[in-house]
Write a structure and sequence with these properties.
Two copies of one chain form a homodimer. Chain A is about 30% helix and about 25% strand. By secondary structure, chain A is of the alpha+beta class. Chain A folds into two domains: about 110 residues, Jelly Rolls, CATH 2.60.120.10; about 80 residues, Orthogonal Bundle (Arc Repressor Mutant, subunit A), CATH 1.10.10. A four-stranded antiparallel β-sheet of chain A has the order 1-10-4-7. A four-stranded antiparallel β-sheet of chain A has the order 2-9-5-6. In chain A, about 45% of the residues are buried. Chains A and B meet through strand 6 and helix 1 of A and strand 6 and helix 1 of B. The structure holds a DNA duplex (30 and 30 nucleotides).
DNA sequence: CGACGCCTTGACCCCAGTCAAGTGTGGTGG
DNA sequence: CCACCACACTTGACTGGGGTCAAGGCGTCG
């Protein structure tokens, strides 16, 4: 019985106090009734989907300030604590303005994930993954990676071996340095993002249809 | 100037009349100011993200009754008409209850997409893609695929050649039949979904932590 | 100490990307 | 009407990237 609720003291109203949970703790299960949404106060959360055949898809990681559990009705994924310890704030649905902000945050995270996973080569995926986390953890050169390699693999649609090899490759190319398995330093951010093919949004807003006619047929691979 | 707005007559209030748009029409561009959200009344829409290097990620397809353009602030993707013609209903942000429903629909679509794209083999991706569309177009054996193969490829992270080969493979295995390039019949739904590895949610809700202890380490590949 | 979890590395091989050619269809102009 | 081209889809041959299997290094725990 690993439910976070055990450790939570309920309060009247929509907002609950921040509560602690340890590594491996399950905050909610896929298919549970979705009564709450959450915001990460500290630590890292992963959301996972288990297929009937046992295969697993990690659908995302949530860092400080990010939200999860915004499904309505029933949770489609499970949420588990990745870091040694995490602190999360629990919300009831209710305050519309607040709810909408939460939903939008979730949407943004998911959109990013698709752009990440859709990448072609393994090296590009891992590079983009690191670049993405760097941004989301507010840009320090030191990137915390509390999740095991298997989580990264199941997130990017790769195997642990390949993920490991790509980290080694990035080290060999002097783009990153690893202090420990779960602490990475970005040495050459520019080349890393080039590898990642970061879409730095150079497409101008507004009436860009002149640049990209609607019937364009060929895109680079 | 392919903007849908040209064809739209504005009305006071939040809801606009349903408007028509032809194949290839751009409803909004990536990086445009996000003033509206949309619901598909007929036809098919695709949302795409263009990287700076010209590569393209199709982030989703929207069928009748589904919503798109729920980004807040700035559209992260472009939305284009895929089918010969489409009809979309435009909404302003405002009615909180309605807004929340729209956001939730979008969220569900994106979550599904991640589960689709995360699959390992090409055959599994295409099979899951077809199974998914069958569900979303309300279960007829006849599946409309108005989008070109290139769109499917850019959606699943494959190449057109591979997508084409997988369709042929599915035909050879007698799982599907193709009347034309863009109309597919599912012959053997069961085996198709088996290939897709459809997660038919056999994991019981509630306190399932006994079945899936938090520290489980090995998952099938 | 051994057992186990997690990560890494190597060897091998197959799946899917690449390059190329062929087919069928629709549009355009002579 | 046909000639020609553009486009979308398919298929084949080849190759390389990444999956698979196996072994080994650490760190932690009992």
């Amino acid at each position: 019985m690993n439910y976070l609720e055990n450790a939570i003291t309920c309060m009247k109203g929509n907002v609950f106090p921040i509560s602690r949970a340890q590594k491996g703790a399950v905050i909610y299960h896929q298919n549970d009734l979705a009564r709450f949404r959450f915001e990460v106060a500290a630590g890292v959360i992963r959301t996972t989907y288990l297929f009937a055949d046992g295969r697993r898809q990690v659908t995302g990681f949530c860092f400080e300030g990010e939200v999860f559990g915004t499904d309505q009705g029933i949770y489609k994924t499970s949420a588990e604590v990745v870091s040694e310890t995490a602190r999360v704030r629990r919300f009831c649905w209710g305050d519309s303005a607040e709810d909408e902000r939460a939903l939008n945050k979730s949407l943004g995270l998911l959109e990013n994930s698709i752009l990440l996973i859709g990448r072609r080569t393994a090296l590009s995926r891992v590079a983009a993954f690191l670049a993405d986390i760097r941004l989301r953890t507010k840009g320090s050169q030191w990137i915390p990676l509390p999740m095991p390699r298997a989580d990264i693999a199941d997130y990017l649609g790769l195997t642990v071996e390949t993920v490991s090899r790509m980290f080694s490759e990035l080290r060999r190319k002097r783009l990153i340095a690893q202090l420990e398995d779960h602490l990475v330093q970005i040495i050459d951010q520019e080349r890393l993002e080039a590898l990642a093919g970061v879409g730095t949004d150079e497409i101008p807003p507004g009436h860009a249809s002149d640049n990209f006619p609607p019937h364009r047929t060929h895109y680079p691979r």
